Amino acid sequence: ATLRLHSEFLVSLGVTALLLLPLLLAMPPRTTGCPAACRCYSATVECGALQLRVIPPGIPPGTQTLFLQDNSIAHLEPGALAPLAALRHLYLHNNSLHALDSGAFRGQPRLLELALTGNRLRGLHGSAFVGLAQLRVLYLAGNQLARLLDFTFLHMPRLQELHLQENSIEVLEDQALAGLSSLALLDLSRNQLGTISREALRPLASLQVLRLTENPWRCDCALHWLGSWIKEGGQRLLSSRDRKIMCAEPPRLALQSLLDVSGSSLICIPPSVHVEPLELTANLGEDLRVACQASGYPQPLVTWRKVPQPRGQPQAQVQLEGGAPGLGGQAKATRDTGSGMLFLTNITLAHAGKYECEAANAGGNARVPFRLLVNASLQRSLPPPALPARPAGREPRHEAGSMAFLALGPATQTAVAAAILLLALTALLLTSMICRRRRRRKKAPAPPGEGALFVNDYSDGPCTFAQLEELRDERGHEMFVIDRSKPLFADAPAESPADRSPAEGPAPGLRLPTRVAYEIHC
């Protein structure tokens, strides 16, 4: 009996263990250093969709995969990722990152994959990716990037995939992709690119997949190379869908595929520049603006610069309107607007000299000189000279050309006074005429029937304002109650009902027992 009880206990214990085994297996192992609310197992830490604003502390140093997606992280605090030197995969997509500090990933030399998709990044600097020499995949899609500067990805020589789709990239500088000799996939689709240079893609010696679709391409002479390159051998990098590079400009080529447009149709118009005047004299201390108008296709980029002066002479500070000032007469170029404004403040002798306005596009460039002369004899900042004190009893002396009344001659003073008097009499006469007309209108008898209010409710005849009693409703609106018990036309002579036709309504003096309220809108 004892042996049977012992065997039954073992059987029940085994059944209980079998029932609890799936629950135990479903629970992930938890290490002692796991951040609160996160899940940690093996070398992976999951902290996604927890409404985090910063990277949580307490992540195990041996973590190789870190999930931080779908949070509200807006900034990577300096040193927040420093202890995670073993990190291989970092997922920060769908957060609120708006910028990356210099050396943000310096402590992750083993990182292979970095996901920054769906953030709010507006610009990138190459220093942000320092230390990522082993990175293979970089996701930057779905941000707000508008311009890729030179050498942005220089510190990632082993990068194989670069995803930049669904941004607002308008400009890809010639050296923006420098250093990406191992890149196999480049996705630039669904951006705002109007053109791309051959030099920009030249560093991509290992490129196998290129995506350029859904951009507003400007099909001019600057894009002639791309069509030829795709037809000659570049089509191996493009799928059948990616070959549909559609033109958005000029209007005559809109919605046409670049591969279907002949090379002779891809034209540019060299720029022409106009500056008026070509020479100007300014006084010391004044501010000066000079416009440079440029035309051409595509729209030229306008740049002002000051021609260097011989050594030993002071250099002026030149600034383009809306741009930062530069020393030595070098002014930064405006954006591609076709017009640049030279803006000089507090002019000194150093501003005098020769300037050049240059306009450039894919069709060529053009320059126009401009010379500024500075008048050293006048200075706006000098205070006006004090007037000498005049002795008592003497009239003040006025300068020649003064507009003061006392400085005018007797004949001129008389003419001015007569003109003022004539204007006053004319205004008085017009006022008198207007008042007389208003009085006549008030005294004139009203024509018969004027003032009668005809209410056509298809059952009663006309009535007058004499029958209306003014009331106000609960909200203070004026109301009129038609009292039909009063005579319709009390002053009119009585008529017999037989003299009236049925269509003329009831006879005068008819009393109606009911009252009807109407709201009058004037």
Per DSSP E runs of 2 or more residues, the count of β-strands stands at 26
Summed over residues and divided by their number, the pLDDT gives a mean of 76
Largest sheet: 9 strands, mixed
Adjacency order of strands in the biggest sheet: 1-2-3-4-5-6-8-10-11
Q: So what's the overall shape? A: extended
Label the CATH architecture of the largest domain: Alpha-Beta Horseshoe
Multimerization state? single chain
Q: Counting H and I runs of at least 4 residues, what is the number of helices?
A: 4
Helix content: 10-25%
Keywords: Disulfide bond, Glycoprotein, Immunoglobulin domain, Leucine-rich repeat, Membrane, Repeat, Signal, Transmembrane, Transmembrane helix
Membrane topology: Single-pass membrane protein
Transmembrane segments: 415-435
Subcellular location: Membrane
Give descriptors for this structure.
single chain; 522 residues; alpha/beta; Leucine-rich repeat, LRR (right-handed beta-alpha superhelix); Immunoglobulin-like; 9-stranded mixed sheet; 4-stranded antiparallel sheet; 26 strands; extended; leucine-rich repeat; glycoprotein; membrane; transmembrane
In summary, what is this structure?
Its main location: membrane. The protein has 522 residues and is α/β, with parallel strands linked by helices.
Could you characterize what this model shows?
It is found in: Membrane. Residues 491-510 are annotated as: Disordered. Its main location: membrane. One of its GO terms (cellular component) is membrane. The chain has 522 residues and is α/β, with parallel strands linked by helices. Helix content is 14%, strand content 22%. It has helices at 2-26, 198-201, 224-232, 410-443; strands at residues 39-41, 44-46, 65-67, 89-91, 113-115, 137-139, 147-148, 161-163, 171-172, 185-187, 209-211, 217-218, 247-249, 269-275, 279-284, 288-297, 301-306, 319-320, 339-344, 353-361, 364-379, 452-453, 463-464, 468-472, 478-483, 515-518. The radius of gyration is 44 Å and the shape is extended.
